[in-house]
Design a protein that fits this description.
506 residues; alpha/beta; Aldehyde Dehydrogenase, Chain A, domain 1; Aldehyde Dehydrogenase, Chain A, domain 2; 16 helices; 19% strand
Length: 506
């Protein structure tokens, strides 16, 4: 890392009132001390963003594109160092951190490209006689200051999905990263601000403030901002929406994504997808496979394909290229996941993997429902490598169990069987969430029935529900959120139409 001390607020970096260590989740070692902001710095960032709002909104397209291209070049130059840093501060396996950096580069690149496609249209106002002689067209204008709040699991990518579209749209942006993982985001913001300076644009167009809930509420409750873009838990997202009203709020919240195995599915491919999609990022992804819904007639054959694959998932140090599952972000998260497993087993679920002689290793001492609503980690909140949760499969958890109804955010999947495909679709929809769902089938008819019937933001056929191209519209329905990410679609969310109606000869 190579950026100044303090926090990037206004046109400079200002001292932070305190610091806190960022820990490597795998062994608890200190990665670095991170600056911790407060309400006063949040207010200072708001005033600075508001002061440059008009200037940023008037930046020429070529300048906005140049800034994003400059940031892309800088992150590309430091690609490997970003990967190493993400492994250390998130504890995610190396393979997942490499993917995160590549996706970040694509997000910056496509945001720069979208600047050239930000335009309006003419409107035929003379469809009624009252419009005779009128000329009409609409243009898109920046929505104003954007507050972007990100989760701990993909800190660099999530920040890029908020920061880059905001700049492309002509909006100043203030980023608040998760307390556990601020370092990669700080570095990204530094590189973007350097690109702003090189383009002779105001560096206050991009700022970052760390801190607790009081900092977040200071940023989101100010009625002068244009939009809040939040990634995190449903509980916190709901509170932000209430606090920010009537300001526009874009919410990317939780999920308990389902994968349906139809009777005509390629069972080997479906089993591979459950392993790939259930355990990447150690299960800490909102569209990882959590619920597997199998048609009865293929249940036993599917399990025979799936269970042997689980012993092939490498567990251990996330710095090892072979590792696929490692420690969760902190000890409270590990305790919660174990508790949810224990509660499901007590309620009647069957543990299919790992095959333990003593199921009491899962403790039922914690029952927090919100996986992303956590305090920052302290030196005592780190996970011993021996406590890594192995890839877990539960069979037939009763309805009403958190392991099925809520977002587990850990390397755990739950499997239920249903009599037919329509029952499977109904089971997918019986959830307060609706982000992504996938269906494995060889039938085109089933494919279009799934697209028509599943109440989710994205339907994926014969691939993991966690598939996301960063250029596509991404977001959910119900408690999975509102609004869409993806550069083109986020830019539309962060701009407003302004209609021009002209009578040339009054």
């Amino acid at each position: 890392m190579n950026f100044p001390e303090g926090l990037p607020i206004g046109s400079d970096w200002v001292p932070a009132p305190s610091t806190a260590p960022v820990h490597f989740p795998y062994d608890g070692s200190v990665v670095a001390d991170a600056p911790i902001g407060d309400v006063a710095l949040a207010q200072q960032a708001l005033e600075n963003a508001l002061s440059v709002r008009s200037e940023v909104g008037r930046l020429p397209s070529h300048t906005r594109r140049k800034v994003l291209q400059g940031a892309l070049s800088a992150v590309t130059e430091h690609r490997d160092a970003f990967v190493d840093l993400l492994v250390l501060e998130t504890g995610k396996p190396l393979v997942d951190c490499r993917v995160e950096v590549e996706r970040t580069l694509l997000t910056l690149e496509t945001s720069a490209e979208e600047v050239a496609r930000l335009h309006g249209e003419t409107v035929p106002l003379d469809l009624l006689p009252s419009g005779d002689g009128l000329q009409g067209f609409w243009v898109r204008k920046p929505i104003g200051v954007v507050v972007g709040i990100t989760g701990f699991n993909y800190p660099l990518l999530l920040a890029a999905h908020k920061l880059a579209p905001a700049l492309a749209a002509g909006c100043p942006v203030i980023i608040k990263p998760a307390p556990q993982t601020p370092l990669a985001t700080l570095w990204l913001v530094h590189l973007v601000r350097e690109a702003l300076a090189a383009a002779e644009a105001p560096t206050a167009a991009v700022q970052l403030v760390t801190g607790g809930a009081d900092v977040g509420s200071t940023l989101t409750r100010d009625p002068r901002i244009g939009a809040v873009s939040f990634t995190g838990s449903a509980k916190v997202g709901h509170q932000i929406a209430r606090d920010a009203a009537p300001v526009k709020v874009l919410l990317e919240l939780g999920s308990n994504s389902a994968l349906v195995v139809a009777a005509d599915a390629n069972l080997s491919a479906a089993a591979d997808a459950v392993v790939r999609g259930g355990y990447y990022a150690s299960g800490q992804a909102c569209i990882s496979v959590q619920r597997v819904i199998v048609v009865d007639s293929v249940r036993e054959r599917f399990l025979a394909e799936l269970i042997p694959r689980l012993d092939q998932v490498t567990i251990g140090d996330p710095r090892d290229p072979a590792t696929r599952v490692s420690a969760l972000i902190d000890t409270p998260s590990t305790t919660r996941v174990r508790a949810w497993i224990a509660n499901a087993l007590t309620a009647g679920a069957t543990l299919a993997h790992p095959r333990l002689t003593d199921e009491s290793s899962f403790s039922a001492s914690a029952t927090s429902v919100e996986p992303n609503a956590r305090p920052s980690a302290s030196p005592t909140d780190t996970t011993d490598p021996s406590e890594i949760i192995k890839p877990t499969v539960l069979l037939d958890p009763p309805y009403g169990q958190l392991i099925w109804d809520e977002e587990i955010f850990g390397p755990v999947i739950a499997i239920r069987s249903v009599p037919d495909l329509q029952s499977a679709f109904a089971t997918v929809n019986t959830s307060r969430y609706g982000l992504h769902a996938s269906v494995f089938t060889s039938s085109l008819k089933t494919t279009f029935e799934a697209i028509d019937q599943l109440e989710v933001g994205g339907v994926v056929i014969n691939e993991v529900p966690g598939f996301r191209s960063d250029v596509m519209p991404y977001g959910g329905v119900k408690d999975s959120g509102s609004g869409r990410e993806g550069p083109r679609f986020a830019i539309e969310e962060l701009t407003t139409t302004r209609m021009a109606i002209i009578r040339p000869n009054p």
